[in-house]
Amino acid sequence: MKKTVEHITSILSSHAIGIDVSKYEESFLLNSFKNKIFEKKINSENEYLSILENSETEATHFENSLHNNYSEFFRNPLTFSVLERIILPSLTHSIKYSKQKEIRIWSAACASGQEPYSIAMLLEELKSDNTENFSYRIFATDQCDMQIDAAFAGKYESLEMNNVNMKRVKRWFAKNGNSFLIDPLLKKNIEFSKFDLLDKTLNSPANSIFGDFDIAVCSNLLFYYKPKFRNIILEKIQHSISDGGLIITGEAERDIFLNHQFKEVFPQSAIFRV
Fold first, then answer.
1. Which of 19, 119, 176, 255 could serve as 12's disulfide partner, Cβ 3.0–4.6 Å?
2. Domain extents for the chain?
């Protein structure tokens, strides 16, 4: 395995565009490599290595396949239940007595937008059910331009709606053939932008100016990276969170946060206090 991964890394870095995949976990890199071989119906690893070596286009396609583009609405039911019933109501109440003018949330790897839209639904529902008025902004970022464009478009197919209950489908989507279009109201307080979590020059999205987020959502991302790069991302997110703020991760990444001595707010919720 190690030799194959080293070969892939060497080939990609030798291209004129200089693709660096050394940050990724070896098992993830190898699985992606094998998936490409299966997808293209290629007979051997060496054959695909040769294609990677001689085709800059294929090298770019392979790198793009490493970006985690998979997402779902309300992906972890327990996490979103805690958000809906405890975390967000508490935030909307406390902001009334603070100098802060808005709730600030960062969706740090938003993929095609399901995550920030799910949070926006909860906040808009709180607004309509609550006599307390409040403002919020969600900064939704991803390293892939195509994903940012898809997220802003807010167009989803039927299979992508499985976790959205019928009440929310009717309230927040317009059906267009076999697709569902997100309500423009949910886009009003979401700012989509490209952002690389491994960029050494910025700790938070440029349009957020100073970070200071009440919540940062960084789920189903860290386990794709080697520990060194996980730590860079974790430190960056920590620096962007306000005092007492929260980080939300995925179920599969709870151990990473627990091993870094983060305190989980509610058992099994994957919500941690900084």
1. 19
2. 2-65, 77-273
